[in-house]
Amino acid sequence: MTRFANSLIGFVSLLLGFNVVLLACSNQSAAEPPQIIEGRSLCSECHMSIDDLRFAAAYRLPDGTEGLFDDIGDMVKQQLEDNKLHTASSWVFDFLTMKPIPVNDAWFIQCEHITTPMGSGIAAYSLLENAQKAATAHEVRVVNWTDLVNQQTTGLSGLTKNQHHH
Asked: Is the residue at 41 inside a domain?
């Protein structure tokens, strides 16, 4: 082989390797929530700093667009106003551990006695048992993400335990 052919093969191999690295990185970031730095990241809705991960939420659209929220209720509001969010990967943070949870794996309670940054009173839990304990303590029900969004459209937020269903 000529030196040119060897150089060309080397260059093509380098490009292919670089593309594999880029694809691996982009797939990894799609599976993880956007980075939120407490006290520095700003809410996409109200532009206040996100100071408490227990109530934070985030999404990433397929095109890479991200949204950060200081209150889960802000992301619910955004979901109701923007149909594009139905295609987003979305996360909330566990009230007890502050670890991210995909919204479809989370359990929620909403209560006026839970003080959240924008007053939604919504807290998320990764474990149903923890959500049930909190719901019992606050006399509210546990809901999933779909029910949480739906109850905001029907005005049923903060339902009592007597109206409990999963």
From this structure: no
Residue 37 is assigned to a structural domain of this protein:
no
The Cα 18–Cα 99 span in angstroms is 32
pLDDT digits 0-9 by tens, 10-27: 554 444 444 434 334 444
Per-residue model confidence (pLDDT) at position 29: 57
Q: What is the DSSP code string of 109-133?
A: EE-TTS--TTS--EEEESSHHHHHH
Residues 17 and 90 placed together within one structural domain of the fold: no
Q: Which residues are CB-contacts of 115 (< 8 A; sequence separation ≥ 6)?
A: 121
Answer yes or no: pTM beyond 0.85.
Answer: no
SS3 (DSSP) at 95: coil
Q: Is 19 within the bounds of a domain?
A: yes
